[in-house]
Amino acid sequence: MVGLLFLPAQGYFCPMSIVLRNRTYHLCKEVPRRFASVEPRRMIWQSLHTDSESEARKKAIAASDQLEAGWQLLLDGDSDEAEKRFAAVKQLAARRCIPYLPAEQVAALPLEERLKRVEEISTWRGNPNRIEARAFLGGVPDPGVTITKALEAFWEHEADKERGKSADQIRKWRNPKIKAIKNLVSQIGDKSISAITRADMVKFRDWWRDKMRTENLVANSANKDLIHIGHILKTANQRLGLGLEDQLRKILENHSFKDTKGDERDRPPFSDKWIREVILKDGALDGLNKEARCILLAMINTGARPSEIAGLMPEHIRIDGDVPHISIEPVGRQLKNQQSKRVIPLTGISLKAFQECPKGFPSYRGKDTLSATINKFMRENDLMESDQHVLYSLRHAFEDRMIAAEFDDRMRRQLFGHKLDREKYGKGPTLEHMHEKLKAIAI
Predict the structure, then answer these.
(1) Which of 76, 100, 117 corresponds to the end of one domain?
(2) Which domain holds residue 34?
(3) What is the C-alpha separation between 33 and 239, in angstroms, rounded?
(4) How far is residue 344's CA from residue 354's CA, in Å, rounded to a whole number?
(5) Residue 305 reports pLDDT greater than 70
(6) Do 161 and 169 contact (CB within 8 A), yes or no?
(7) Could you report the per-residue pLDDT of 180-219, keeping only the tens digit for each?
(8) How many helices (H) and strands (E) does the chain have?
(9) Of 42, 57, 76, which residue is a domain's last?
(10) So what's the pLDDT on residue 132?
(11) Cα–chain center distance at 183
(12) How many CB atoms sit inside 10 A of residue 126's CB?
């Protein structure tokens, strides 16, 4: 804050000073430039109602803060953001002990009360303050539940889905939804969800169409945004009881894009020959850090997801028993689904990887950099079998080896963490049985 200066003798006034006039101290404050659009005066004189200099100095601080708070409300009341503008005019009215009312309710007030509101509007050289006029006469409509408010209601409703997730998993769950809402607001504004029209959604779809064309994006990118937006708006409507079911159905339907590049997005499996002769060639992985290298090797004979291997705690790596294995459990993170909780025997190069890293992979546990690190290394060192191959292709290669070895469907799904599409009978394959089968196809 600018310090208080008392310089009446020199006839000079700093941005804020106190001046004795007719035995009463006054605050003299220069209006900051940022408030010039809502306060036409350059200097403000305000009585502090005291002849004590020490008391005046104390009062001046509070008076200055009140002036700036009022100017900030005026500035917010002139904002383009509907919710911010509405909140500001309500506060402006409350500062004068006037309850904010919509214009139609103000018009229905007795004449005396309406005139009182008009009299409260400040004037400068005969011109009424337009923002105060909106505040006292109800000139700013309630924006209702805006798009960003709908997202807040969505977080509240879906809070249970964050339970058990790691901080990184929560971030990855939230970010696509935040991005979708941000994209929508950038195109149609943060309007009330009751005011969203089909034309707004067509405009948003057109924006995505142009973005897909100029940035060579696949339809899946746009469709995810549309799915997230629909889910968020419908959830907020349900939670807040807005009664917009029919409207949302009409404005949200039939906007998705057909994914003409779907086949190009499939992850092909690595061939056994490529894994053995290229990826596992002597020295091929030497430039990759130890933990990332061992995770890559661990995937080859387990088919586990990279994040599942990275998230293993030391107690989940069991290599000293009769059947060395890993146990994928929802500890410190949330698994993809219920079936993802499973045990996988360790064989071949994957067992050696865990023997090298028996305590797991703390550098990548709970983080989201693993796949990018390994994919970048493999591409830079010509270890990808094609442009479509990625680290995840090792998981698909493992499944192909199980199919070629005629693993039954239940065992494949149990090892892969997939749901069995029929009723379960019996306990299923034992750890020892799966171990024997996997040793036969291990690399």
Answers:
(1) 76
(2) 16-76
(3) 43
(4) 13
(5) yes
(6) no
(7) 999 999 999 998 888 899 999 999 999 998 988 888 777 8
(8) 18, 8
(9) 76
(10) 84
(11) 12
(12) 5
What pLDDT is stored for residue 339 in this prediction?
Answer: 67
Taking residues 324-338, what's their average pLDDT?
76
Same structural domain, 328 and 437: yes
Q: What tens digit of pLDDT does each residue of 367-421 get?
A: 778 888 999 999 999 999 998 899 989 988 998 888 888 888 888 888 887 666 5
What single-letter DSSP state applies at residue 263? G
Q: How far is CA 32 from CA 8, 72, 296, 358, in A?
A: 21, 11, 60, 64
Pick from 62, 61, 134: which is nearest to 92 by CA?
134
The residue with tokens 């629909």 is 230
Same-domain pairing of 156 and 257: yes
Instruction: Tell me, yes or no, whether 343 and 359 share the same domain.
Output: yes
Residues 157, 235: contact at Cβ < 8 Å? yes
Instruction: End-to-end CA distance of the chain: give it in Å, rounded.
Output: 70
Length of the chain as a residue count:
443
Instruction: State yes or no: pLDDT of 286 exceeds 80.
Output: yes
Instruction: Give the pair of three-digit tokens for residue 361.
Output: 């992979």
CA atoms within 13 A on the CB side of 151: 18
Give the integer Cα–Cα distance in Å for 108 and 104.
7
CA proximity to 137, closest of 114, 163, 160, 170: 114
- pLDDT band, very low/low/confident/very high, at 334 (cuts 50, 70, 90): low
Number of domains in the chain: 4
6/82 Cα distance (integer angstroms): 42
What is the Cα–Cα distance from 123 to 175, expressed in whole angstroms? Answer: 47
Cα three-residue angle 378-383-386, rounded to 5 degrees = 105
∠ CA(103), CA(107), CA(110), 5° rounding? Answer: 140
Residues 104 and 211 in one domain: no
Contacts of 183 (CB under 8 A, 6+ apart): 204, 207, 208, 225
What pLDDT shows up at residue 294? Answer: 95
Q: Comparing C-alpha atoms, which of 260, 147, 145, 142 is closest to residue 204?
A: 147
Q: Give the three-state DSSP class for 219.
A: helix
The answer to whether the CB of 89 falls within 8 A of the CB of 140 is yes
